[in-house]
Amino acid sequence: MPGGHPAERYGRVYVLRIGHRPQRDKRITTHVGLVARAFGANGFVLGDVCDDHVMDSLRGVLERWGGSMELLCGVNSRRYVSEWKRNCGEVIHLTMYGLHVDDVIGEIRASPRPKLIVVGAEKVPPFFYEAADYNVAIGNQPHSEVAALAVFLDRLYEGRELRIEFPGARVKILPSPRGKKVVSLEEDN
């Protein structure tokens, strides 16, 4: 899908990070946002707190590596989920206690409704399990929320997200069997 965006085929997808603890979770939450961007989400929402470190890191990546993604922080997570549902979207909560991704991904993928993927940090309140249209597990073992989001988005987009070309990029990696090849695109923009 060079040049195209998975949202054109599968609909709008936002990722809501809940339970972020600024002193403990900066790196992991930043990685949740990076995976959301790289794997084709249209937006990243940091619920209940605003961590400038996380948001500045994501803005910097967007500026340098291209693409567009709505970034929000400090929104009330419960209200955001309720409004998302009220506006005809569906909520997918990633949890190791949910239904196996392979058992529900076809149904989720077939729905044209906008999708809000909820990714927790600390213990997730019962509200999010109850409000979710789908509680989805990437296996039923303890694992990283970053890995869960990456696997879920890959299954949702059927691997097409790995070929996204981000408009407005200032740099680009040239695939290489050895070494690092990064080229500047500044002359082209």
Please describe the topology of this protein:
Layout: H1 7-10, E1 13-18, H2 22-38, E2 43-47, H3 52-65, E3 70-75, H4 77-86, E4 90-100, H5 101-110, E5 115-120, H6 126-131, E6 134-137, H7 145-157, E7 171-173, E8 182-184
Parallel strand pairs: 1-2, 1-5, 2-3, 4-5, 4-6
Antiparallel strand pairs: 7-8
Total domain count = 1
Number of helices: 7
As laid out across the biggest beta sheet, the strand order is 3-2-1-5-4-6
User: What overall form do the CA principal axes indicate?
Assistant: globular
For the record, what is the CATH homologous superfamily label?
A: SPOUT methyltransferase, trefoil knot domain
* Low-pLDDT residue spans: none
How much helix is in the residues? 25-40%
Organism: Pyrodictium delaneyi
Function: Specifically catalyzes the AdoMet-dependent 2'-O-ribose methylation of cytidine at position 56 in tRNAs.
Subcellular location: Cytoplasm
EC number: 2.1.1.206
Description of the structure:
This protein has helices spanning 7-10, 22-38, 52-65, 77-86, 101-110, 126-131, 145-157, and strands at 13-18, 43-47, 70-75, 90-100, 115-120, 134-137, 171-173, 182-184. It has 189 residues and is an alpha/beta fold. A 6-stranded parallel beta sheet has the order 3-2-1-5-4-6. The two termini are 22 Å apart. 34% of the residues are buried.
